Amino acid sequence: MLHDMSLCVKRGDLISIIGPSGCGKSTFLRCLNFLEIPDSGTIRIRDVEIDKLDGQNWNRAQERRAHKLRAHVGMVFQSFNLFPHRTVLDNVMMAPRAVKNASPSEIEPLARSLLAKVGLEGLAARYPATLSGGQQQRAAIARALAMKPAVMLYDEPTSALDPELAEEVLQVMRRLDEEGMTQIVVTHDMRFARAASDRVLYVEGGRIIESGDPEELFAAPEDQRTRRFLRSLL
Ligand SMILES: Nc1ncnc2c1ncn2[C@@H]1O[C@H](COP(=O)(O)OP(=O)(O)OP(=O)(O)O)[C@@H](O)[C@H]1O
Ligand SMILES: [Mg+2]
Predict the structure, then answer these.
(1) Where are the domains of the chain?
(2) What value does the CA radius of gyration of the chain take, rounded to a whole number of Å?
């Protein structure tokens, strides 16, 4: 259950969301993408706004707009979720081909350039099962980028990875940040949240308890609940 969660993200910002297990981090991300329909509120991404939300009375017109809004959002999960029977290249090409009805020759250059961007240029023909977890996650990022999203959402993208593989993924996210991509990241990696974010949100009990500059929030949290959480990690 979320309560009064309000967030305005500037284009190009990287926002980290931290908080204890079960506090609502995943639910919040899922609402942004309408994988979950909020009971009330407004969600706006670029030119698409869905207001007077009411999960009990979700209608066709709202579903159509949600569909439009989802096209602006790239989502990456903890568990990679690549299609196992498709090559890495096919995984990246599938969504733009389906949605834009484009031929492979139109989409392939973009897909290959995205694979290069995430450091997988040599692995386009491989199947997901033959890649490391870090490589699979980078392929999942390339796949999300193929739809040219306005914002990327990540739900614990590195939680299933060993530290060095996690680092490869975080590096890709830092690079996207430098290129001006807007990103919202749910993470348990406090070092990344502190070093890479423009802003950190501490969530507990379905509420944003504190939000601010990462250096300030980690060094001198204002709310005692944030302090308690950060202390519990030491
Ligand atoms: N589909 C659902 N229906 C009802 N309750 C749910 C549903 N999904 C999650 N919840 C509950 O909502 C709360 C928030 O869950 P959520 O998965 O968003 O937490 P989280 O912060 O992502 O936790 P974690 O760090 O463990 O991933 C939890 O109490 C959870 O049990
Ligand atoms: Mg979660």
Answers:
(1) 1-72+150-234, 84-148
(2) 18
- Write the CA distances from 109 to 28, 87, 92, 146, 169, integer angstroms: 34, 16, 11, 11, 22
Alpha helices in the chain (DSSP H): 25-32, 60-70, 88-100, 104-117, 133-145, 163-178, 190-196, 214-219, 224-233
Instruction: Return the DSSP state at 228.
Output: H
Q: What's the pLDDT tens digit per position in 210-229?
A: 999 999 999 999 999 999 99
Residue ID of nearest Cα to ligand 1 atom 9: 27
**Is the beta carbon of 27 within 6 A of some atom in ligand 1?**
yes
Distance in Å, CA 1 to ligand 1 centroid? 8
Residues around ion ligand 2, judged by CB within 5 A, are 26
Any ligand 1 atom below 6 A from CB of 26:
yes
Contact (Cβ atoms closer than 8 angstroms) between residue 90 and residue 112: no
Torsions phi, psi of 65, nearest 5? -70, -35
- Residue that the structure tokens 């070093």 belong to: 195
* CATH homologous superfamily, domain 1-72+150-234: P-loop containing nucleotide triphosphate hydrolases (3.40.50.300)
Closest-CA residue, ligand 1 atom 22, reads 26
What pLDDT, in 10s, does the model give residues 173-213? 999 999 999 999 999 999 999 999 999 999 999 999 999 99
